[in-house]
Every structure is written in structure tokens, then in C-alpha cells.
Amino acid sequence: MNLFKEEISSWQDWGRLFQSINAFQPLAEYIMRKESLPQAVLKNLTPGTNAVFRAGDYVIKIFAPKESGNDQTPDMKTEIYASRRANLLGISAPKVIAEGFVQDKYLFGYLITEYINGREFIHAEKDMTAQMRFEAGRKLRNISDAMNTPCEHFNDIDIFSDSYINSRFTEFPESFRDERLSYIRNHRYSESVFVHGDLFGDNALISDGGKLYIIDFADSVLAPVCYEYALIAIDFFRFDKHLIKGFFGNIGREELTEICFNGILIHNFGCGVIKEHIGRPEELNCLDDLRKRIYEKTASL
Fold first, then answer.
1. Selecting from 1.20.1560.10, 3.40.50.720, 3.50.50.60, 3.90.1200.10, what CATH number does the domain 118-297 have?
2. Helix (H), strand (E) at residue 264
3. What pLDDT, in 10s, does the model give residues 211-241?
């Protein structure tokens, strides 16, 4: 076969192509036929890392091949495992319809799930009352409680390994980095459980019927639950008091600060989240600087 006509030899090539309906339509049609699913013209969805399109009542995700320089096969395997786990647990997430590989010009992995008709939370929230935001926080907590439970190892990521820890926070002052490493190695984190790992406003949907769904499990890992909670509070909720109260209950500022502080120090996206919501790296010379900044963000609670 030669359904995919474009050249991929770098991540820049993939970045240029991964939202192109023209480039992926013939390949997507073949995959849908292969899985005995109805044909449909592709429509773009919110871009991420891989090629994601709506195809009628389904979402088809085609993962970047190894020729891109960033083989997405590990992410694909993680997402398939995590999505099927969510389906088995009855968690509000799109149902997995099919998954596999197709050998064309390149070996492409793919995942097909049901399409959820609704709005991304980041947009839907703008029309929510305070009570609606509280209820959304409560619904997400119910999902989280069902999801953030012990499970088997499902990928090769160890968030406490030296290589993983040392590769984060490189933009911060050396004094901050040294103190962070010492803190992580000596702090008694809770047991590791399954976490989604990327829960923020683009990865949650409010269906037309008002149901809350979560999507995109490619960054799931085993980690202490504060890893999940920190990202939810800082990036998803942006410390909105109604969302926070719905999710965490009547939590105090000091307790929420510690959850966010401990979780963000070990999070894969911790550096970026701090830069976007807490402060510039050069302003944080020690861990106490970070803790104080997080505490200031909780002032509205």
C-alpha cells in the first residue's frame, strides 16, 4: 500500500502534517474498513501530539511513526491499557472500539474510540455558575476516586528513578534543583497508584447531557495521588474556589498547598505548570519560594 503520500523524516515533518485531513484521509478510510466501521469524512479535533480526527461517531488517533524521531508506540500502548482499564472500571471515558497497526509507507499505530458529543471543559466552564462548578469538581473527584487506585505496572516509567527526576526542572536555579532532588529522595510519598497524569481543561469534556468525561490517557503513570491532585488544582482548576471545594471538600489552604507542592515537584509537566501558573524559574531559588507562591495562589479559598 501507499495510502500515505507524505514524507516523514523528522519531528518537524510530523508537526507540519499531523493535523492534515488530506494527508490522513485515505489511510483513515482503510483503517475504518479494516475494522468494519462506517466511512466518514475526517474532521479536525483539538490538536495534541498525534493525528486525531473525528470520523462520524468515532475518534481515530494515528500515532507518529518511528521515522518522526519520536516513536509514539510506548504512548500508544499506555493509552490503550489505560483507556481499557477506565472502560472496565466504569469510568466516564470514551469506549475503546479498536486498536492496532497498519503497514503503509510507514508503520502506523492507531486507536479508535467513540466520539463524545460535547464541549471541552475549558470552554464549557465559562458558562457555569458557581454551583455548576462545584458539581463539576465533585464529579471529577468521583472519577478520580475510582481511577486513582493501585494497579499493575503498565509501562516502563519510574517517576522516582534518577534519570526521570534529574531530567526535570533544568531551567531552575541550581540551588532549587539541588534542594528538590534532596527533598524528593527523603520525603515519604504515599503509595503509587494509577494516575491519568494530564488532567486539565482540554482533556475533560462536558457532554450534551451534562456528563463529565475524561479523555487522552497517553501520559498515565503509576505515582502518588498528589501527582494527579496537584495538576488538577493548579492547571485544571486554576485554584477556582468552587471547583476546589467540589473536588477537595473543605480543605484548608495549608493542606492544599502541601498537596500541590509535593505533587508538582515530581510531575512530568511540573516545570511548565509552575512557569505558567506560579512564577518564573529564575524567581524561585529554593523550595520555600515555591511553597510560598503556591500558598499565595490559594488566597481565594
1. 3.90.1200.10
2. helix 253-266
3. 999 999 999 999 999 999 999 999 999 999 9
Q: Give the residue among 138, 258, 254, 239 at the shortest CA–CA distance from 190.
A: 258
Band (82; pLDDT cuts 50, 70, 90): very high
- Top CATH class, 11-114: alpha beta
Share of the chain above pLDDT 90, in %: 94
Tens digits of per-residue pLDDT, 111-156? 999 999 999 999 999 999 999 999 999 999 999 999 999 999 999 9
Query: What are 79's three cell numbers?
Result: 493509552
Going from N- to C-terminal start, the domains of the chain cover: 11-114, 118-297
> Could you give the 3-state DSSP secondary structure of residue 177?
helix
CA 231-81-16 angle, to 5 degrees, is 70
